[in-house]
Amino acid sequence: MENFYRDNPDIEFHLKHLALDRVVELKEDGFSGKDQYAEAPRDHADALDNYQRILDIVGEIAGRIIRPRAAEVDRTGATFADGEVCLAPGTVESLDRLKKADLMGFTLPREYGGLNVPKTIYGMAIEIISRADASLMNLFGLQEIADTICKFGSEEQKQQLLPRFSSGEISGAMALTEPDAGSDLQTVMLKARQDDAGNWFLNGVKRFITNGCADVSLVMARSEEGTAGGRGLSLFIYERDEHLKIRRIEHKLGIHGSPTCELQFNDAPAQLLGRRKFGLIKYTMSLMNGARSAVAAQALGIAEAAYREADRYARDRVQFGQSIRRFSAIFEMLTLMKSSIEAARSLLYESSKIVSIKEGLEELCEKHPEKTADLKDELKRYNRLAALFTPIVKAFASELANEVAYQAIQIHGGVGYTCEFEVERLYRDARITNIYEGTTQLQVVAAIGGVMGGMAMDWLDLCEAENDFSSVADLFQQAREGRQILVEAIDHVKTRRDKAFQEFHAARLVSMATDTILGYLLCRDAGFADRKRKVAQVFLLESRHRMAAYHAYILSDEDAVLRHHQDIID
Ligand SMILES: Cc1cc2nc3c(=O)[nH]c(=O)nc-3n(C[C@H](O)[C@H](O)[C@H](O)COP(=O)(O)OP(=O)(O)OC[C@H]3O[C@@H](n4cnc5c(N)ncnc54)[C@H](O)[C@@H]3O)c2cc1C
């Protein structure tokens, strides 16, 4: 029987070595819930045991229920008739199993029926589910909506909605995008009007809304008439009624099980979430950062599935009298795929650990305002780290998923191009991960400030201070050399004081920072296992060449593209 948690020792490796003490302590508020809730952990070991049990259940449902239905879900897809969306039967069955296993309130507090599990563990669950069926993750992973209500909603809104989210009775959607507002969400125009009694009503169109047929949507709308920018936007809770028309669903390249809806709001009654004008700058940013981490985990799950398919095929396929896995071209591809997947996993867990600490600190300050002054600096640091790591991991994992799926088809040769093998679906499913929740280009825009502003260096310092690299000194020396050339590239761009030049090299600088962070993380992992030392060796060698090329390009001041692009493409 397949269990997608148990058959992947790398997840357990991280669970064991990730040093989640602070994360668990914050999430459990010093284990204060043990007297109130029978299922609340008594201490750190108990909490880890609990997480493992939860992941074991997720792994079993993924392997036994979700994966066997994924191909049929892809073929049938979600459908649309008479103004209503119908999920594929396999999607409904899989979701039903997840609900029955009480997995729909993963991170919500116990008082609202949730499991009170940290984001790091939620990320692991998302990876496991996405490996089985990436489209299902889009419905399972919409738990961010309940999380956002939990963070910013009133107590009444929380009581009214969160227990129903936890039980799986209701599902959510995140309605931000409009035909003319995609990457640039400041231009959202859907209108929110308030009547004399203070009630809000929504009017306008949203496009590309995953699960737009949901019972509850968080809708970003322009609440301040006559404004144009992000500060005129608020976020609303809309419970579905007859004032919403689903116009159509998209016919897409992949993730067929996940319905992508165009919605028309016709004077739809809604409740304000939190404060007016904070819709984009605070609540949506928080919602999207959660969703970006979830997409990174989704991408990792797809990459893991594609790697396994490729490896399985390469073992069996014989050409020129031997398994193709013995040809250098093939084993190199497999080795790089696997090393990069493990690198992405380290990055994802580090990133979600940072986010978990940030959120834990925020909750602590809310529950114990008297501690706020003491925690201010730490919270500021983790806020900035989260703002850097979230786009970095989203960009890295989603581009990697595409690359791995591409190579997986290559390793299959001709059959990889047919619909009989799973890799073609994985290739199609991977393609959305570097587009939604902000394209890779937008992740670069989000990350470059942190790279240029010193947050990457701050984390590298923190990592050096918290870890003993002496048992992997040779490898760590290489990682530090990477840091050195990153510093040189950043300094060079700063010295130029040229915004266009910085924008031109932004993707290269973010890539160099990502490689440097990954080098440190893999050295840290290498300290725990000999196999990880080899993974680090392979990754550092690859990344050294990549970084050297970017470093040389940046320092050369060659900017032919900047100077000639108009002559070439106009
Ligand atoms: C299947 C699917 C599901 C989705 N689900 C949801 C959902 O649930 N909720 C929701 O609100 N939205 C959802 N979306 C919308 C999605 O988030 C957007 O499509 C995405 O953010 C990109 O916006 P856009 O399509 O308008 O592209 P555009 O913003 O028009 O971008 C087009 C191109 O220009 C580039 N570009 C734009 N601005 C810049 C810049 N400043 N610098 C460099 N390059 C730039 C982009 O990278 C891209 O290559 C979904 C989309 C799809 C396809």
Description of the molecule:
The protein is built from 18 helices and eleven strands. The protein has helices at 9-17, 21-27, 44-76, 89-100, 119-132, 134-140, 143-152, 155-167, 279-316, 328-367, 372-412, 423-430, 440-452, 455-466, 473-496, 499-526, 530-556, 560-569, and strands spanning 79-81, 84-86, 172-175, 191-194, 200-210, 216-222, 233-239, 244-249, 260-272, 318-319, 322-323. It starts with 8 loop residues before the first helix and ends with a helix. With 570 residues, it is of the alpha+beta class. Strands 3, 4, 5, 6, 7, 8 and 9 form a seven-stranded mixed β-sheet that branches.
Keywords:
570 residues, alpha+beta, two-stranded antiparallel sheet, globular, binds flavin-adenine dinucleotide
Summarize the structure.
By secondary structure, this protein is an alpha+beta fold. It contains 18 helices and eleven strands.
Q: What Rg, in angstroms, do the CA atoms define?
A: 24 Å
- Element order: H for helix, E for strand: HHHEEHHHHHEEEEEEEHEEHHHHHHHHH
Shape annotation: globular
The beta-strand count equals 11
The major β-sheet equals: 7 strands, mixed
Q: Whole-Å distance between the termini?
A: 58 Å
Low-confidence stretches: none
**List of distinct ligands in this structure:** flavin-adenine dinucleotide
In DSSP terms (H or I, runs of 4 or more residues), the helix count works out at 18
Quick check: average pLDDT? 96
Structural class: alpha+beta
Range of strand content: 5-15%
In helices, the fraction of residues equals 55-70%
